[in-house]
Each structure stands twice: as C-alpha cells, then as structure tokens.
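Board notes, transcribed. Complex of a protein with zinc ion.
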Amino acid sequence: MKRLDTTQPGFATGFDALLSSARDTTQRVDGAVAAIIAEVRARGDAALLELTARFDRWTPAGAAALRVSAEEIAAARQACRPELLDALDLAARRIERFHAAQMPQDLVLPEDGLTLGLRWGAVDAAGLYVPGGKAAYPSSVLMNAIPARVAGVERVVMVVPTPDGEVAPLVLAAAERAGVTEIWRVGGAQAVAALAWGTDSIMPVDKIVGPGNAYVAEAKRQVFGRVGIDSIAGPSEVVVLADAVQDPARVAMDLLAQAEHDEAAQSILITDSAALADRVAEAVEAALRTLPREAIARASWEAHGAILLVRDWDEGVRLCDRLAPEHLEVLVAEPEAIFARIRHAGAAFLGEWCPEAVGDYVAGPNHVLPTGRTARFASGLSVFDFLKRTTWVSATEAGLHRVGPAAVTLAEAEGLGAHARSIAMRLGQ
Ligand SMILES: NC(=O)c1ccc[n+]([C@@H]2O[C@H](COP(=O)([O-])OP(=O)(O)OC[C@H]3O[C@@H](n4cnc5c(N)ncnc54)[C@H](O)[C@@H]3O)[C@@H](O)[C@H]2O)c1
Ligand SMILES: N[C@H](CO)Cc1c[nH]c[nH+]1
Ligand SMILES: [Zn+2]
C-alpha cells in the first residue's frame, strides 16, 4: 500500500504513479486472443470444444452439450436454497424497477412544415458475458440480463465458462429469473468470438456486454465493429472519501470489498485526518487475516492500494476526479454536498449506511461500471446499452418550399448535383 501526503514534496510523482499503474493486462494477451478468434472463425464448434477442454478442463460430448438445457435449469433452481432464491428475487425486482425507470421517450418535434422525430428501438440479439473462471457471479447475471430484457431485447444469449464442467446452480437460477433465452457453457475469448461470428450451434448476436478477465476484455475490443460492445471493464476499483469520525474497521472492510475481487483491483482511501489514515491502515491488516480471499485481497492492497492524506475536501474532490473511480464512497458529514462537487465516478454511495456492496447486489443501479479512469467519458451498463435511435423526418409541400432552397444552395456548394436536383425538381425548379 502506498501512503501519500499532499503536503509532502514527493506527492505529485507518487500520485502520477498511482494513476498510471499498469493493472490492465489486455495488451499482453492481444496475440493469444487474436489466435483464439481466428480459430473459432475458421473451425466454429470444433474450436469451441477444443478450447473449452484446454482452458476449462472439461470435454463436452459434442457441441449440443455446450447448451444448458431447460431440464438442467429447472434442476438448478430446485437445488438452490429458498432463501437464496428469495434474495435473488428481491435483487431482481429492485434492478428491474430502476432500469424500467430509465426507459427514454420517443421524440416528435413539428417545425416549419417538417416533423422531426427520434424513435428508440432495442437490438435484436444481445450476448451477455458472465464471468466464471475464479468465482461465480449470479448478481452479474441479473445486472447484465435485466437491462436487456427491460429494453425489449428478444434474444438474450448468456455465455459462462464452466471450469470442470460445473455451472453454479444460482447462476442458472438467476438467468432464468432475469429472462435469459439461451445459455451456453463456454467462456473466455472463444465465447466472445462465437457470439460475434457465430458457429453452427450459436447464432451471432448484435451486441456483446459484460465484464470478464483480460482475455474477455481484449476479445471484446477485437470484435468491436462486427458487433457492438459496452465498455471494456478492467479490474475493480473503489475510492473512499472518509473524515475523522468514521469507523476505521468499516472503512477498511469497504476497501477490502473491492480488493478481494482481483489481485489487480485497486482500493484508495482519501482522508483529511492523519489519525484515521493510521487507524484504517491497521484495521486493513487486522481484517485481511480474517478474509476467506485473504491472498487475493492482500495482493491487491499491497500492490495497488493507497491512502491519500489531504489538507481539505477541495483537494480531496480534485484528486478523486483525477482518479475517476469505478466506485466512490462518500463517508463525510453532508455527503450529498461533497458528491455534488465530484464530476467523474461510475457509481457513488453516499453516507455511512450505504457500503458499496449494497450496490453490487440489491440497490438497483447496475454494478457493471467503467473502470481504469474511463468514468471520465463512460457510464455503467443501463437500458441505453441495448437501445439505439432512429431519427425520422416528414415534410409537407409547404415545408419543403420553406427549407428546400437552402438545401439546394448547400448541395450546389458541395458540387453534388443529384442532391440539389432531387430537391429542386420537387420545388418546380
Ligand atoms: N465489473 C464487474 O461488474 C465485474 C463483475 C464480476 C466479475 N468481474 C471481474 O471479472 C473478472 C473475471 O475473471 P475470471 O478469470 O474469474 O473469469 P472469466 O470468465 O472472465 O475468464 C475465464 C476464462 O478465461 C479464459 N482464460 C483463462 N486463462 C487463459 C489463457 N491462459 N489463455 C486463454 N484464455 C484463458 C478461459 O477461456 C476461461 O474460461 C475478474 O477480474 C472480476 O473482478 C467484474
Ligand atoms: N464489485 C463488482 C464490480 O462492480 C461487482 C460484483 C459482483 N459481485 C460482487 N461484486
Ligand atoms: Zn463487488
């Protein structure tokens, strides 16, 4: 963990190092990913079977075995404890409500004898990547699939790797609850390639969304253009802004809740209290020893964690905006006032009663969020990722007479005769 103090001379260099720390490993796997995509394009299902055997230690009995059947989904649901299904349902209902409230209105604007419109429509087919290499994420199934269904996507195709052939029952139950229409037991770059290019078994989709490891992220980057993608999600991050009165043990656990995701995750505390900085550092050490994922969380905290001591919240807000974190917790008196001054964060959690993990599961907003400082220009997954706009125009004869001559003038200036005449001949010229 790095400890930096804005009053000390080395601060600027230390902070720049933090901003540019190489946590994203996608560049290093681009060659391997290109080779996998080429294999899937050339050999389709046969390549999927071989790559699944190689990377997920499982040899499916033919391509049909890659698809999860309706019977398997029903059996998975049966295998889940009722309290798990209840928790899933509570989360799903809250996520549905929040995403339904995002649905935009079409636009119709009459103007000068023309009518201008904008119509929203869903993509036909969406591919959802649900990570499954190191851990199973039923919550990510809900977060990917619900916005797609709420947006009106008809074909919602989920791909999930199944190390040793096993898919967690709760992942399948979540897919059923969220309205996923197809589930394929395939992961990594090969799954992304199959969704983009199709194979004999898997029909291609129009857009691929969802987080994954470096191979998945790089594969999404490489198939972009053939299909749409959401953002490229890298390792998780949190910035916690905390003042002197916060409980160090709670702050420490909030930092470790991101660190335990990945050795490359990054957790940063910004505080105006040297005493809190000391106590949180100690509390992280103590808490680490109690965590089931201690090794991952410790690696993340030691390599990428940081505590930044600031003079005041003006400085704290400026540093936070430069970090543009995926998650932001604001644990200060009047958190809304500080949050109003922050411009760049994927998702914010305000006040001591709202730890980020609430947002991972049950709050309602999406947990698939921009990482790696991309919150400067990108947003979390939403219904908008599954929608596109078509604009339309209709005109009366009088309307064309009003605006047409200017269009003829501009078309002639561009030397585009057919453009000019297509309008002029309607104007009787
Ligand atoms: N942003 C979010 O909302 C969110 C949610 C959940 C998980 N995550 C992140 O997603 C990531 C999940 O990673 P994961 O590894 O557990 O699962 P994953 O499903 O992303 O990756 C597993 C797949 O990676 C491929 N792979 C592994 N080693 C390979 C190699 N040497 N060559 C080629 N392919 C290889 C295999 O095909 C395997 O099936 C983590 O970084 C986690 O933090 C993010
Ligand atoms: N915090 C992760 C990235 O937003 C999402 C997640 C899933 N399960 C638990 N957490
Ligand atoms: Zn999380």
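The longest helix spans residues 30-56. The two ends are 75 Å apart (CA to CA).
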